[in-house]
Design goal:
This protein is an alpha+beta fold and 514 residues long. It has three domains: 136 residues, no CATH class; 162 residues, EIF_2_alpha (Alpha-Beta Plaits), CATH 3.30.70.1130; 149 residues, Helix Hairpins (Orthogonal Bundle). It is 69% helix and 6% strand. The protein is built from 15 helices and four strands. Strands 2-3-1-4 form a four-stranded antiparallel sheet. Strand 2 and strand 3 form a beta hairpin. Helix 5 packs across helix 6 and helix 7 packs antiparallel against helix 11.
């Protein structure tokens, strides 16, 4: 058949060609179905199982109990993933589930087994909500392998580990925070006690100069000054009385033969003068007055004539007693004035030091207030941390919950049986069509009168019909029976391939074992 004739083929001609070249359709299709069934049964398959873990928010309202666990879910999921995929954990899973127990893995190193398993595990996070900073609301754990039971068991085991590790991590974080706050609280309590003791020592050391004692010190200072003024007034009065008494005694002295009494008076006055000289200078009024009295007595005694009796007015007992009392009063008043002055000076120093002590106490009080506020804040946080720890232990905080457990996979994840079915079917039909097209292209014979007329450009006068002999009829019957048989075989192969594709090899094996 020429290229022009091929381009002008009609539908009835296509049917005629398909029937004439039917074996080039049936045989490649059967071969493709057999190959597809073989691939479906014997091609290495990889099964995949997955589980969905939901991230549940804290059950207790945050207005009542605030969680102290880090709220960065991405970081926590990444941390737990690293722990789950760690060498130690995967080794436990391999040993527990007896993975890689086939003969071909017998000589494989444990490190290689762990690395193969790690590559087959996938953890994908699903984010909910809106906006750019969406929080994860669930994540999926997927594992692929050659055994459906193994992949299901591995996924469920990893999911359980995820749940346990999350609870463990949250409880450790909460307990760690509580322990840290406990240590900080103990340290802050010691600082608070040290500042309190420092303030007590300071108050004991500077007792009397404290700001709250200023008013009392001023009142006492006023009272001492009033007392000092009173004592000075009484001292001045006593001095006046002493002066009057001394003058009276001096004027009543008379020289006499019994001058021994006058001499005795002078001696007493000299003793008084010596006593005053130890306290005052020569210019003191009392010293000057006493000296004049002594000089006057001496002058009177010198004027007395020998043998001549002078009526002498010696110092009476009352005068001596009065003089002694006045001198005692003077000494007492001077001592009191000196003591009062000492107390006044002491209270003046206290009053003058009070502003300084106030500043120092304010500094200590400020430190005490800051430490006390820090201590109260830490104490409040410590109590909140203890409540949060109890909440985590009772699993009332944020937690992971398995929403869909991994199920036994019924179909392999690879190869994709549906794609394999389509590819093999199309390949079988396409190969047959391609062979027919090639043979028709290479075939130069004419099978219809229209082909001759088209090729030669002249009309066909007559057609000689095909003459069939009995052996030809027998051969045609055999060909028809063979065609029917192969069509049935092709249909059965197609149905078998479709059945294997739709229900899966594992399901087929289970059906066959029943």
């Amino acid at each position: 058949m020429t290229n022009e004739n091929i381009g002008m083929i009609k539908p009835d001609q296509l049917i005629e060609i398909a029937l004439r070249r039917r074996w080039f359709l049936i045989i490649p299709f059967c071969i493709a179905m057999i190959a597809g069934i073989g691939l479906a049964l014997f091609f290495p398959k990889s099964y995949e199982a997955s589980t969905l873990i939901l991230i549940e928010v804290q059950r207790v309202p945050t207005d009542y109990v605030r969680s102290i666990v880090s709220s960065d879910l991405d970081a926590r999921i990444n941390t737990i993933s690293q722990q789950i995929l760690s060498r130690t954990n995967l080794e436990k899973v391999i040993t527990r589930l007896n993975l890689f127990s086939d003969e071909k893995y017998k000589n494989m190193l444990l490190t290689d087994k762990i690395e193969i398993m790690r590559r087959k595990i996938q953890i994908s996070v699903t984010r909910g909500g809106g906006g750019h900073a969406r929080e994860p609301d669930s994540f999926t754990i997927t594992y692929s392998g050659k055994s459906p039971e193994d992949v299901m068991n591995v996924v469920n085991t990893l999911a359980s580990h995820f749940i346990d590790e999350n609870l463990k991590v949250r409880e450790e974080q909460a307990s760690g925070t509580s322990s840290f706050l406990e240590g900080e609280l103990f340290s802050m309590r010691k600082k608070l006690e040290e500042v309190e003791e420092t303030m007590k020592d300071y108050r004991r050391k500077f007792m009397g100069e404290l700001p709250e004692q200023l008013e009392s010190n001023l009142r006492i200072l006023d009272r001492l000054q009033e007392q000092q003024l009173d004592r000075q007034t009484r001292l001045s009065d006593a001095k006046n009385r002493l002066s009057i008494l001394t003058s009276n005694i001096a004027s009543s002295q008379v020289s006499a033969l019994g001058s021994s009494e006058g001499t005795t008076d002078i001696n007493q006055l000299n003793e008084q003068l010596n006593a005053l000289m130890t306290k005052y200078t020569d210019r003191h009024p009392d010293v000057i007055r006493l000296k004049k009295t002594i000089a006057s007595l001496k002058a009177r005694m010198d004027q007395a004539e020998g043998g001549e009796k002078v009526v002498a007015g010696t110092m009476s007992l009352a005068d001596r007693q009065a003089l002694l009392e006045i001198n005692q009063e003077l000494n007492s008043l001077k001592n009191e004035i000196s003591d009062l002055q000492s107390q006044i000076n002491q209270y003046k120093i206290r009053v003058e030091n009070t502003p300084k002590r106030e500043q120092e106490l304010m500094s200590l009080q400020r430190d005490y207030t800051n430490i006390q506020e820090s201590y109260s804040s830490l104490l409040r946080r410590k109590l909140e941390a203890e409540i949060a720890v109890n909440m985590e232990k009772k699993q009332q905080g944020e937690r992971f919950r398995i929403l869909d457990y991994a199920r036994l996979p019924e179909k392999p994840a690879s190869p994709d049986m549906r794609k394999l079915f389509i590819i093999v079917t199309v390949a079988g039909i396409g190969l047959g069509c391609g062979i027919i097209f090639l043979m028709e292209h290479l075939d130069t014979s004419f099978r219809q009168s229209s082909q001759i007329e088209s090729f030669l450009g002249i009309p066909v006068i007559a057609e000689i019909p095909s003459i069939q002999y009995p052996e030809d009829l027998s051969r045609d019957r055999v060909h028809q029976a063979a065609t029917i048989l192969f069509l049935v075989i092709s249909g059965l192969l197609f149905v078998a391939f479709l059945f294997v594709t739709m229900i899966g090899v594992e399901q087929l094996k289970r059906i066959m074992t029943i």
